[in-house]
Design brief:
The chain contains four helices and four strands, in the order βαβαβααβ. It is of the alpha/beta class.
Length: 129
């Protein structure tokens, strides 16, 4: 029987780092699942949120990308990995669609081109698809 682990709502960089690093990741290694699924809102995309932001909060998309890539690297040994995008991941698309003409980015920038989940063996499914 193949074992899968499904988790959601980490909201990096607001994730509970001690719980994930000291409890969840060692448990994941111990369980040795065949598959792992991130079920949305793994990153917060705080910087791109339409909501009011605390000006003292130093959360940036760049930091979210770096932290997330570290976790994806740590899961390299898992056979099947999927990331189902949630509304927080979709903030990138909505931000680009709203601000594309003001930004020095290519028209094809996407969540996948920034976070590169396929480089870490993750199958990415965008929000709403």
């Amino acid at each position: 029987m193949k074992t899968y682990v499904i988790t959601n709502d980490w909201q990096i960089p607001f994730h509970d780092k001690p719980v994930i690093d000291r409890l969840f990741m060692p448990f994941l290694k111990w369980l040795n699942p065949y598959g792992f699924i991130w079920n949305g809102d793994i990153v917060d995309c705080y910087q791109l949120s339409e909501f009011s932001k605390n000006p003292l909060n130093q959360a940036t998309l760049r930091k979210e990308i770096r932290t997330t890539k570290t976790y994806m690297e740590d899961m390299a040994w898992i056979t099947y990995k999927a990331w189902l995008g949630g509304n927080h991941e979709d903030r990138i698309r909505r931000y680009l669609w709203t601000n594309a003409e003001k930004l020095p980015v290519e028209a094809d920038e996407t969540f996948e081109s920034l976070f590169k989940p396929s480089d870490y063996g993750f199958v990415y499914q965008p929000y709403g698809s």
